[in-house]
Amino acid sequence: MNNRSYPSRIIRYRKILEYNNIKSYILGASDLDFWKKVRTIDYFIFPLINEHSQIQLARTVLPVIENIYKKRCFPDQATSWHYDDKIRQYYLLYAHGFPVVDTWVFWDQNSALDWIESATFPLVFKLKSGAASSNVVLIRKKSEAKILINKMFSSKGVTCHNVPSRNSLTYLRNLIRLYGLRRYIALKRGRLDPEKFQPFWQVQRDYVLFQKFLPDNAFDVRVTVIGARAFAFLRYVRPNDFRASGSGLIDYDTSKIDMRCVEIAFRISEKMKFQSMAYDFIFDEEGEPMIAEISYTFVDTAVYNCPGYFDKSLKWHEGRYWPQYCQLAYLIKEIQLNQPPEDIMAL
After folding, report:
1. 3-state secondary structure 64-104
2. What are the residue ranges of CATH 3.30.1490.20 in the chain?
3. What is the pLDDT of residue 47?
């Protein structure tokens, strides 16, 4: 296997399987014999990344493989049907009474404009799609909210990573357009794969999502639950900003973890039968932990760098674990998997 041929997260799955003498294949959904090969396998793993083409593919093939071909999948439908959709996530958590940040979703323009007249600012505006805070902005006044509402209910809508707001993380980049020019030049010179040129192409429209702004949160608590393991760390917000997701400012000091977040995350994963789920907690005015977002997939190295994990009794266990190993161990219960040593997992 040529390690340069596949993303690192796929390589790590394969290294773990090979180390445990489990035969694996990489299937291409465009292969003419794809569905014939699906019939022959025991497990199907889709290492999904946050790119719209991959999400489109996953939502098309995974339900068929799991529900029609009856293959054990990672992610399964319980884990992934709400992935990259903050509205689905909010509806799911709210319906089950879990602590989620107050959120208002409108499906028609007039209702949104009527509500905004009496809303309390600032508010957080989000597109339902997007990771690393790329489609999240802070709205400080009514006029800004109206611009976004009218844009979301226009014929053009809003393209992901192009939220028209000055505190958008991509505002200056898109204003100057040098980012797009550099990518175009890289594409023409053969330094960028065509499918990577525009990975976020979805147009969002005909809805609007606002979330209550909870001030004085210098960080969020990221808790990732995989089976009976919970990995937790803090993510500090960017300088002079309110967003922690994607900042890369991670603190692994376990003494700073609010254990209520770990307990809630375990409770939700067990109730909803999630195979793998990352929870982003912030705190309300009373200091209560509230969930801002969830995601079944995440940066694997951030979890691996945790010095250990909490079990369901909240007992601490030292050691570094690749999330791919934890996910495979949870999926393939018939075999006692071993995590390869670091020299084998190195890329």
Report:
1. HHHHCCCCEEECCHHHHCCCCCHHHHHHHHHHCCCCECCEE
2. 102-212
3. 82
In degrees and rounded to multiples of 5, residue 341 shows phi and psi of -65, 165
Q: Has residue 65 got a pLDDT over 90? A: yes
Sequence-distant (6+) residues with CB within 8 A of 119 are 142, 145, 210
DSSP structure class, residue 237: P
Mutual angle of helices 8-19 and 323-331, in 10-degree steps: 50
Identify residue 177 by its one-letter amino acid code.
Answer: R
The model carries a pTM of: 0.88
Instruction: Output the CATH code of domain 219-342.
Output: 3.30.470.20
Nearest CA to 287 among 268, 263, 261, 269?
Answer: 261
Question: Alpha helix (H) ranges present in the chain?
Answer: 8-19, 34-40, 52-67, 77-80, 86-95, 109-116, 142-152, 171-176, 178-188, 194-197, 259-272, 300-304, 323-331, 342-345
Instruction: State in words which class domain 102-212 has.
Output: alpha beta
Integer Rg of the chain from CA: 21
